[in-house]
Predict the structure.
Amino acid sequence: MPRIALVTCRPGPEVAVDPDLPGLLAAVRAAGADAEAVRWDDPDADWAAFDLAVIRSTWDYSWRAGEFLAWADRCAALTRLANPAPVVRWNADKRYLGDLAAAGVPTVPTAYAAPGEVLALPAGAEYVVKPTSGAGARFAARYTPDEHDTAVRHVERMHAEGFTAMVQPYVRAIDTSGERALQFYGGRLIHAIRKGPVLSPGTPYDVRKTAHPGVRPWRPTPAETAVAEQALAAVPGGSGLLYARVDLVDGEDGRPQLMELELVEPHLFLDLHPESVGKVAGAVVEAADRG
């Protein structure tokens, strides 16, 4: 019987509780594993005692990215980590979008500026500023051209805290067609969801956002599935992926574009897709059995 850790974090004022974890834990046990939920920063955790550690809901990692990535390296040296530590490190910084765009994946245009660099802000349309290390729309905000000074202060604050800033055009189709998230587990598409716009005009960057407003099940189109599969095929070391969430929006031409590729700790939305619980549990136990 394989021993499996579903890796999570300590709940807190700014950290959501994973609603899927109890049911998934029970399903993994029912599928034939000795499974338990373990906090990634638990000083007493014996990672070598597990056959597989699956990063499930480490939803505080972007606050503590350096610590988390160091933990991923340590954990991977003691047991099998999913997703693999090099993939986690690559995906934890949203500059990966540049790599995928260079590989030909349709991607929302993105510019970056590390501390000490100047971020060129668009002058003629709405845009979004956020850190390259972030989750749940933390430190993200939507701006109009006449809010330039506020956006500059936003960037300055991020740089002062050591974050690299990024800017993207605000994709207007999000307000009408929303954002779609395609979930892959065990190498196959298991389900998808659609959610509404996260960033409202005038909402300060340092206010906590609702990360998944108006979420509901979604049937992905062939075009959406094709872009998702293209993105996954372009991931360095992607052959070792256990799970992935591919977030898509419609570009100005109406075709799907990649907004984000979540390979660290994606929300699975199993409450909307209970039929996927067994699929996820089976894929986790199969991964542990492969050794």
Remarks:
- The radius of gyration is 19 Å.
